[in-house]
């Protein structure tokens, strides 16, 4: 800037026509919708923590066998209903690293229970990256290496053992592979059916809408739990656990799609009257392209939130069926199968650690609900 004789300020720099005078003065306000959604989601602390926790859980599924010290059906006949053991680091004021004490059990014929005594005089150091029972890493690679193992002459039951002497902690890790995956498969089936029938009913209307609505009403009028039981009981008992797992997942997905289809239909009934939809139809776009390119993207935020909130319902459905003995069955391992062994209240009163599989179910379901609430709020960043 320079000052002229008449006290006028004049910019001596050459003038250019490159500046965007209509753009915002603050560059941080000129951001994409994705960044706005991330900013809003990040402010939802519970949703953010839940998302990180669930991501960590799903990342552990392929390597559950490596982390678990035992295989899911590995039995120890001398440690039936063994109580949880603690991992210690200090012994008599001296640091010796992670170790456990040797425990021995005997039957109390007076109170009809197992009683265990701990030998605190001789610590047994844990073994790391040791060889144990074989398992499949990532479901494909055969391996015998475990992160840690029990020392010779001792056990490492972090969350106790069950009635057959199987490690509860290891079985929970292996059971997560089925219990957490059943929700993903079920929600995939549910979304394919719900979006397909809901979009057809909402876009075409008329007789097509009437037929699909009557089908939805019939399915929603059936009592859910008895229908689950009837369909699950129809699965042959001689099928492999893997086959039963996929059938249960498909059953849960088939029974869950009417609610989503009704939501998609109601949204499409309003969106199909929008001007951009009419313009696409006048330009010759086929119905499949209008639905795929113009209608579904405007409904995607609701679909993502619905998927996140439907997965815990699938997990609880599999748990309920397996708990009642009509879902997955032994030797398959899931959280519902583990709870099936804890039906006896008298046993839970004495051996309380057999009910520990309830905790991961509660935590995971709550995490999915918190994540769904955060996604539902953040996927519409312009709504206050």
Structure description:
The protein has about 375 residues and is of the alpha+beta class. Helices cover about 50% and strands about 15% of the residues. It has 13 helices and seven strands. It has helices at about 35-40, 45-60, 65, 170-205, 205-220, 225-235, 240-270, 275-280, 285-295, 300-325, 335-340, 345-350, 360-380; strands spanning about 1-5, 10, 90, 95-110, 115-125, 125-135, 140-150. The strands form three sheets. The protein has a three-stranded antiparallel sheet with strand order 3-4-5, with no helix packed on it. A hairpin with a 4-residue loop joins β4 (about 95-110) and β5 (about 115-125). α4 packs antiparallel against α5, α6 (about 225-235) packs antiparallel against α7 (about 240-270) and α10 (about 300-325) packs antiparallel against α13 (about 360-380). The longest helix is centred in the middle third of the chain and has 37 residues, at about 170-205. The mean pLDDT is about 80.
Count helical runs. 13
What is the ordering of alpha helices and beta strands? EEHHHEEEEEHHHHHHHHHH
Q: pLDDT average, as an integer?
A: 81
Q: Major β-sheet, in short?
A: 3 strands, antiparallel
Strand order, biggest sheet? 3-4-5
Tertiary shape:
flat
Helicity, in percent?
40-55%
Percent strand equals 5-15%
Keywords:
single chain, 384 residues, alpha+beta, 7 strands, flat
